[in-house]
Write a structure and sequence with these properties.
2 domains; single chain
Length: 403
């Protein structure tokens, strides 16, 4: 009974307190002063009778100034007000960051392009990896049919999770580093020629090749262990139950060095591979845009803008990808062979990159260094084309411009 009475008294107190906060009825008596009297401790202008130790109101009421101050006080001391203040601050900071973070946007655009393109060509990627590791003379269609009959549609996408986990940061870092390096090269050329900071400076194909080459090496260095895991899942899908299991499987069988097996040929291959891809695509794209723009200006007599159609972007990306893949494929074969040796009962046949190249040539012939080139090019051609279409779309969506 005492507990019930205590709860009732407490409830009445809370309701009274809430009413005193929410109501303006008792702001000031009708015959009272129109100005707030902060000195009068008995003044009924204190909201909920909240006063300082010196008798002044903590949150005054009535009048325009009092009303504004009371709202500020409620925001300052209220949980809801604090939430809205924090929310607005976070949203403002996020908007400012997103507006200024050009490099972050390039990172996102490249990551999305990599995921979309690699998923589309996953079946061809699986067949190419199998032929590079296993060798043999079976054609691409025969490999695809055998894969479908033995593993179904799921077999076409084995290792794709790890592949996307690898390609998203790889492509993101590639585009991020490529654009960043180009900006620094342009700044250097402006400084060397004594030009203004906003002066227009063009990059040569060789400069784009170098920027792309270093971008490829940086990206591969950061995500190489995921490449090894992807190869394990593609070659031995029944052995490892997911990315984490494959990662620990490599560590258990060959130790931490297994996560970097084939790293040396990868770095060597990435420079011409990514460098040529970026150089061919961007140089061709700029040449077409310049030609079409000059043609439109000659016809219309005014400045014109020309946007390359999607099918042209697809063709340029395909051409760049095919050239890049062909130039670096032998080192790609070496990388795959080094990745799988010592794992799942595979013998350790090669000591290093040069030993692997010599061993493959002496035992299987020089043509074996191009095993899987057909499926790899077939995968690369549409894959790189789709990647650049997606990348150009993301650049437009995010409001980005390349050098």
């Amino acid at each position: 009974m005492k507990r019930t009475r205590s709860l009732s008294v407490a409830l009445v107190f809370v309701l009274t307190f809430a009413k005193s906060i929410g109501s303006d009825a008792g702001a000031l008596p009708s015959n009272g002063p129109t100005k707030l009297n902060y000195e009068d401790s008995s003044s009924p202008t204190c909201l909920a009778n909240l006063k300082r130790s010196n008798g002044k109101c903590l949150i005054p009421r009535a009048g325009s100034t009092a009303t504004a101050t009371s709202k500020t006080g409620l925001k300052t001391f209220g949980v809801v007000g604090s939430f809205f203040v924090c929310r607005d601050a976070v949203m403002t900071a996020t908007q400012n960051f997103w507006r200024d973070a050009e490099n972050t946007k390039f990172l996102l655009a490249g990551a999305v392009a990599g995921i979309v393109s690699r998923t589309i060509v996953s079946p061809l990627e699986v067949v190419a990896t199998a032929q590079m590791v296993r060798g043999g003379n079976k054609n691409m269609m025969g490999e695809l049919l055998d894969l479908f009959s033995s593993e179904g549609m799921r077999g076409f996408f084995k290792g794709n999770g790890a592949n996307c986990l690898k390609v998203a940061p790889t492509r993101g870092v590639q585009f991020f580093a490529f654009e960043s390096i180009k900006v620094r090269v342009v700044d250097y050329k402006r400084s060397k020629m004594g030009l203004a900071e906003d002066a227009e400076v063009s990059l040569s194909p060789i400069e784009r090749l170098i920027a792309g080459g270093f971008a490829g090496m940086i990206a591969s260095s950061l995500v190489y262990p995921i490449e090894v895991v992807k190869t394990m899942l593609t070659m031995y899908p029944g052995k490892y139950n997911g990315i984490n299991a494959a990662f620990h499987g490599v560590l258990n069988e060959v130790g931490p060095k297994g996560l970097y097996a084939g790293f040396a040929p990868t770095l060597v291959a990435m420079f011409p591979y990514v460098g040529m891809e970026f150089m061919i695509y961007e140089t061709s794209k700029i040449a077409i845009e310049t030609y079409m723009k000059s043609k439109l200006e000659a016809k219309d007599g005014e400045n014109s803008q020309y946007t390359i159609p999607i099918f042209v972007t697809l063709g340029l990306g395909a051409m760049a990808g095919a050239a890049a893949q062909s130039s670096a494929h032998p080192l790609d074969v070496v990388r795959k062979r080094l990745q799988v040796q010592g794992i799942n009962g595979n013998p350790v046949l090669y000591k290093n990159t040069l030993d692997c190249i010599g061993g493959i040539v002496s035992k299987e012939g020089a043509s074996s260094l191009y095993k899987g080139l057909g499926p790899a090019c077939v995968a690369t051609i549409p894959g790189t084309g789709v990647a650049y279409i997606t990348y150009e779309f993301m650049k437009t969506f995010l409001g980005l411009n390349s050098m």
